[in-house]
């Protein structure tokens, strides 16, 4: 049974109800405080539940991540990305008929017309692919504005399928434009991850099942992560009733930040800075020195305090890819493996729970596959799409309010205007 929390305000006692969570900590409902003329103060919303959701649950202390109640380890090893997309969007794993219908819907929606493709010509070849992807997703609003009614369930599902289908095509087009190469059309006969890789590299090499499986697993592991910065951005933008493609584009912009989606890119930048396996110990010492600005990227996690459950699954795929490609002896990857060994054996890392996280293994995997570093966050975008659109769909499926955070004002008190010639 929910308990009440009491607070005192100028001698008055105010009762605040608690809301019971199905998993994890209960939540104090502070909405009644506004009537008392007071707000709560929580920079970064670190202790604030901005919504209720049935999609994803995280217990950082225990290393738990579940989509709709299913442990991420089971989904990553036994499922595939499109099945996970259906789970996130609809709440249950699909039946065979539902899965076949989703596969067909994705195949039917993955192409983009030639006029839309001209959008990429507006970008220089050196433009960051995240800029291209954000603009391209936002541009879908111009194609699908009049035929999208966000109040209609069927329209929201159609929008979700359209975004999940087109984001691999858009991502591959951004990559090909940046490489100065012509676009490769999607192939509906290929699986989701295999099709994306084929649109990137199909004119150079065949896509092996091992690499396609590793990419599909990366998509699954990144599919959702509760109320992170980009997901909260999608919800906040969506609460204005804006076009869904605009809301998702806002999420893409938030993900672009190096403190969020750019973390696996930062791992490769760090490895390149170290440069050689012989310098690993030197840089580990720098990382231990609190007065040295150097930081090891890809170790530990803000949410997961003991281990990242996604990293354990990604580690397996990472080593499978390295073994198949014969890339284990490449200097940069040897350096990474040496760093991984130290992190698992050195007391400094063990005592501080600085374990290799998903960004460490996904960054190494993408590097081995041939994905350029500036495309890493685009891969994250591709994987996170079903999570974003599922949270948007969930929010619009129930009564909601436009997001409007409060502030602690610390500016000047009221004062009178002084004419410019008297200042």
TrEMBL record:
- Establish whether keyword Acyltransferase is in the entry: yes
InterPro entries referenced in this protein's UniProt entry, alphabetically: Citrate_synth-like_lrg_a-sub, Citrate_synth-like_sm_a-sub, Citrate_synthase, Citrate_synthase_AS, Citrate_synthase_bac-typ, Citrate_synthase_sf, Citrate_synthase_typ-I
The protein's annotated pathway: Carbohydrate metabolism; tricarboxylic acid cycle; isocitrate from oxaloacetate: step 1/2
Entry-linked Gene3D superfamilies: 2.20.28.60, Citrate Synthase, domain 1, Cytochrome P450-Terp, domain 2
**One of the Pfam families matching this protein, by short name:** Citrate_synt
Query: Which residues are named in the active-site annotation?
Result: 301, 359
Q: Which GO terms describe its molecular function?
A: citrate synthase activity
Annotated keywords: Acyltransferase, Transferase, Tricarboxylic acid cycle
Transferase among the record's keywords? yes
Q: Quote the cellular component terms of the Gene Ontology held in the record.
A: cytoplasm
This enzyme catalyses: oxaloacetate + acetyl-CoA + H2O = citrate + CoA + H(+)
Example GO biological process: tricarboxylic acid cycle
* Family (UniProt): Belongs to the citrate synthase family.
Protein name listed in UniProt: Citrate synthase
Give the organism's phylogenetic lineage.
Bacteria, Pseudomonadati, Pseudomonadota, Gammaproteobacteria, OMG group
Q: What gene does the UniProt entry assign to this protein?
A: gltA
């Amino acid at each position: 049974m929910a308990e009440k929390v009491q607070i005192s305000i100028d001698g008055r006692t105010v009762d605040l109800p608690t809301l019971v969570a199905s998993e994890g900590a209960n939540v104090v409902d502070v909405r009644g405080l506004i009537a008392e003329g007071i707000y709560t103060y929580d920079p970064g919303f670190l202790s604030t539940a901005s919504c209720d959701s049935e999609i994803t649950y995280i217990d950082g202390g225990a290393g738990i991540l579940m989509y709709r109640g299913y442990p991420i380890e089971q989904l990553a090893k036994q499922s595939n990305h499109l099945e996970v997309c259906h789970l996130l969007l609809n709440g249950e794993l699909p039946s065979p008929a539902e899965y076949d219908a989703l596969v067909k819907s994705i195949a039917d929606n993955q192409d983009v017309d030639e006029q839309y493709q001209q959008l990429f010509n507006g970008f220089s070849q050196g433009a960051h692919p995240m800029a291209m992807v954000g603009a391209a997703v936002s541009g879908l609003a111009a194609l699908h504005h009049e035929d999208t009614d966000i109040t209609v369930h069927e329209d929201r599902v159609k929008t979700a399928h359209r975004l999940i289908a087109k984001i691999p095509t858009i991502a591959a087009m951004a990559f090909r434009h940046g490489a100065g190469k012509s676009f490769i059309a999607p192939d509906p006969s290929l699986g989701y991850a295999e099709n994306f890789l084929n649109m990137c590299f199909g004119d150079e090499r065949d896509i092996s099942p091992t690499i396609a499986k590793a990419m599909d697993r990366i998509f699954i592991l990144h599919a959702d992560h509760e109320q992170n910065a980009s997901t909260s951005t999608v919800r906040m933008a969506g609460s204005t009733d804006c076009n869904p493609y605009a809301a998702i584009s806002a999420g893409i912009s938030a993900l672009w930040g190096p403190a969020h989606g750019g973390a696996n890119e930062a791992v490769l930048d760090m490895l390149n800075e170290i440069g050689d396996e012989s310098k690993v110990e030197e840089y580990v010492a720098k990382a231990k020195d609190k007065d040295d600005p150097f930081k090891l990227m890809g170790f530990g996690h803000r949410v997961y305090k003991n281990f990242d459950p996604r990293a354990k699954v990604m580690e397996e795929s990472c080593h499978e890819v390295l073994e198949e490609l014969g890339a284990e002896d490449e200097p940069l990857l040897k350096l990474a493996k040496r760093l991984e060994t130290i992190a698992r054996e050195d007391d400094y890392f063990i005592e501080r729970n600085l374990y290799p996280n998903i960004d460490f293994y996904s960054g190494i995997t993408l590097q081995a596959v041939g994905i350029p570093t500036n495309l890493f966050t685009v891969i994250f975008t591709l994987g996170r799409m079903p999570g974003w659109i599922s949270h948007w769909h969930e929010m619009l499926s129930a009564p909601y309010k436009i997001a409007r955070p409060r502030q602690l004002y610390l500016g000047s008190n009221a004062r009178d205007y002084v004419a410019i010639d008297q200042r």
